[in-house]
Amino acid sequence: MFKSVTLYTDQLAAMRRFYGNILELEITERAEDRFTVRIGTTDMTFTAVDRPAFYHFAINIPGNQFSMLKHWIQDRVPLNWEDGVDEVYFRAFDADSMYFEDPAGNIVELIGRRRKDVYGDVSRSSFLNVSEVGLVTNQVQEAGQTLFDAGLPLRGTDLELDDLNFIGRGDAYFVLVRDGRKWYFSKKNAEIHPLEARLTDGTVVRLGADGRISLSVSGE
Predict the structure, then answer these.
(1) How many CB atoms lie within 10 A of CB 175?
(2) Which helix (H) or strand (E) holds 152?
(3) Beta carbons within 8 Å of 141's beta carbon, 6+ residues apart
(4) What pLDDT band is residue 170 in, cutting at 50, 70 and 90?
(5) d(CA 46, CA 104)
(6) How far apart are the first and last CA of the chain?
């Protein structure tokens, strides 16, 4: 679902080193004010700004490589803990997750889909695509309706104003959450920061600094 995602950071150089050297992912574009890293079938661009910003996003990984990737990640960055554990199984998604933070404080989740297997050693191909992008707003109902209007369904029956709302399809979702709610496996409360996500069907979803979501259609 996510063709490309654009996030903002005041730690551009450290982020480029982290994703290129520590996680060993391919940097496909380098510029003075931005860089793009390829995460499987998704391109993620980090653009320089003066003020700190952090986000939650998730990356799909093969379920059969979860344990290998956990050891691989732990050699490079500490995992986040919650309630005495550093991983969790989500029955509703039939998936295991682990979390860590990058130099900008983004809460990165690796989701091992138990029905998805990739054989071989850990490599760039173990990072399949961006699975989740957090959308933080103080207007959950309005934002949810905007996404519904774009043809994205809600996983569940009703929008929850004080909980996580998964809006998307397959193994890819926007995670719509109110400003100030604590993120799982983090000590941080969600904050509103602008972002842009281009979907594979051409839809472009933008979150503004005011927490409002707007839609357009890409000409690409």
Answers:
(1) 22
(2) none
(3) 159, 161
(4) confident
(5) 10
(6) 15
